[in-house]
Structure formats: C-alpha cells, structure tokens
Design brief:
By secondary structure, the chain is mostly helical. 74% of the residues lie in helices and 0% in strands. It has two domains: 49 residues; 140 residues, Tetracycline Repressor, domain 2, CATH 1.10.357. The chain has ten helices and no strands. Helix 1 crosses helix 4.
Length: 208
Amino acid sequence: MSEDEIEQMHSRFAREAMALMERTGEEVTRLRLAAELKIARSRLDMVFPEDRDLFEAITAEWFAPYIEIMDEVMASALPPRRKMYEFIARRFIRLQRSLDEDPAAFRLYVELGERFFEYAQSYIDLGDHYLCEIIAEAQAEGHLKDMDVDFARSVINQIVSTYLQPYSIAMLGDRLSEDKLAHIIDAIFDGLVAKDGGARSTKGLHAA
C-alpha cells in the first residue's frame, strides 16, 4: 500500500470513526471501527498502529474546518480590528452551530478533548501564532501600545476564551453573542495598553 493510499484511508477512516461516535454517543476503538466497516483489523492497523493514532486523526479531522477559517481570515485584507473579530467570531459561530445541530455529539467531543488534550495542542499553538500576527498588525496602527506581544496574546486569550472553548459555549449557550463579542474586541483595541491604569494597587488588595 502506497503512502498516498494510506493517507487517503487515514482521513476516510477518521471520518468514519467520527460518524460512528456521533451515531452511538460513545468513543470508538480500532476493533469497533473495523467491525463497523467490515474490514480486517490488520488493514486498519496498517493505518492506525495504535488507538491513540486513531484519536489523533479524529482530532485532526475535527480541527480541519477551524484551521480553514483561520487561514481564510489571515489571508484577508481586513484591518486588524475586523480581522481579530472575524478570527474569533467565525470559529465561535461554527462551534455554536455544531452544538445546536447535535448537542450529544458536541459534548462527546468536549469530553474527548479534555482527555486527549495533547493531540489538540499543535492546533491551539497555531491559533496563538496567528493571534500574535494580528496583535503585531494592531500595534503597527497604534493599538495595544507598548505591550509585549506574548503577554498581549495571553491576556486576549483569557478575555475571549468563553467564545472559543467548547465547554464554555455548551454551558453558557445564548448568553454568548456576536454582538457582545464585537464590544469585547472594541474594548481590547480601545483600552488594552501596557500602562498601569490604576486597578492594581502598589500596596496589595484592600482589606474589607
């Protein structure tokens, strides 16, 4: 079997595994998948030597549309403020739609994501890399003044995390909205700077 054939089967079997998970509401193993597809276990083992390889492929398939969204936004000529909004909003809308279409499957993927977080790390790192590029573009226009890029990325991730974490989206539901997100992005661009604005006291927290 050629490398191209293995790669094609890799993607196909991962999608079949996801479809099976969504039908049954349960995790899928290579043994279960082979039985469902009516193929020899040895054939599946050529593509996924271990169960973890199957889960890693499922993770890649799940993230694929979100990577496409990020790539499209980064390739656009949008100004930084609009770019940051769409960078977050487009993924939020897709996550929200996935929840609405199949809440049980959405929650299953959330559970799997928590258990196999290491497989998602490279995709999260890519999102952080792109966000740093947007921050640099914003700083070139005078926003986020004097902030270290990595520090700004960390702060912004904390501010918008509820719009990108599947668990938060499932928990908060309709309390999250595109309109609120737009106000959050405006607040970031209009008010987030390196200078201490006075919230943090030099003498520590004030006793009640």
